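Handout, section 4.2: multi-component inputs.
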Amino acid sequence: MIVLKFGGTSVGDAVRVREAAVIVAAQRQPRAVVVSAAAGATNLLLDAANAAASGDQTGVEAAAARVRQTHADVAAGIADEAEQAWVLAELDQLHAALDDNLAQVVVHNNLTADQSDAIVATGEKAMSLLMAATLRSRGIPAAHVFADRVIGTDDRFGAARPDRVRTRDQAEALVRPLLDSGLTVVLTGFIGSAPDGRTTTLGRGGSDYSATLIGAALNADEVQIWTDVPGVLSADPRQVDDARVVPHISYDEAQELAHFGAKVLHPRTIRPAVARGIPVRILSTFAPDEPGTLVTRQSVGDQVKAVTVLSGLMLLTLDVPELEDLAGASAVVFGALHDDRVEIVAAAQASSRRRMTYLVDAAAHGGCSTVGSRLRAALDAKDVEAEVGCAEDVALVAAVGQGAAAQPTSLARFLDVLTRSGTPVLSASQQSSNVALTATVPAGQAARAVQALHNAFIRSQHASARGRRPRKSELQSESVRVG
Ligand code: ADP
Ligand code: ASP
Ligand code: MG
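Output:
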């Protein structure tokens, strides 16, 4: 069986949902379909929740009305009258539950993380109903399943971690029999449920992760991520004009790309696929015949495959008087970050060796004022002599490619490109996995840095592949080719 996941733009309106249904229908194998909320719906639902928390009844009404309208527009595109009537009745119930949840928030003047998850889940739930009805109206027997009955998670609302065993058991009990009876099963992306049954979410963009979790639970032959770009590209097309499709990448490369900011895959998407060796394909609903990107265990070629930017970070530094103090001070820092559930994007020992650096998402953790003082207090409590520094508005740029990053001279070359482009480098490292080269740079310089890296590492490969003499601007890049 295969899993097909459709992202927000790919189910953004009635036409896109119908196009997605055509793609599903073209697959001959048993299939599970995972859907995101329609583009914009999750943000609107969050707006409604936040308006409710601040008692802004007009804001609540306005956002909720736009959500209802988005769903009604898709429903209006369903040709079969009985299916349309069914979906409208189901949507009414779902929207009534949404209104109740929002009203609760208004009454208590407070939005808890579990209430927020219950509210945002409405977007994916509605889309699973709409997709199932659309498929049936095209003569494809289909059933919807809300994935809070399938994906078991812990209770970190907003960023829940899956429980693989519970997920597999629930998928076998609930989804497998539907597939076996010949139905296409349409599941909600993004959501799961805590051990006590309350709905959780897997973090923004989490529907990709839902797809591989469900794929792994059902031992799928392939997971297809259908999106609005024709595959994983060599850079974010919004940042680099001549970004191009990377036909094949390894799990390790995909994992690093996603971790270091390539939004096309949620950072955790790849891990469930690795465990069972399930191929993941990234395809475009706007160009369904294009081959896209295939992600498997193998790495092909030894060149840099893509460059990425991760913005909104803060750079924490820890300086100790003597090298032998570093382990103890780091232990305190890691302990405090762990206790506060602060996720570390990257950590490295600086070349001075008495300094450790840690990169952390700034917005998620309250910025330097919160994290910096928390670490200072933790070190003081243990009477550890160390200096903590913190800088905001930092971005991480990365060049990803298994063979390329493993070469001993490649970090120097990577830094050379950044320096020549006039980008100040705050810290740099060759990730221990040898899959990515990374540097932290001021956020304002990240766009220029990524363009320079793309010119140097990607454009030059294509110029030489076409057998033409590289332009002068690319000759600089030739000196930094690492593959
Ligand atoms: P979906 O709604 O289908 O999940 P997303 O918006 O989450 O889609 O992810 C697709 C977007 O990711 C693309 O439109 C593109 O702007 C962005 N993106 C960032 N980096 C890359 C990359 N390296 N390759 C492809 N897309 C990328
Ligand atoms: N709808 C959710 C979001 O916007 C999940 C997803 O699209 O993957 O974050
Ligand atoms: Mg996405």
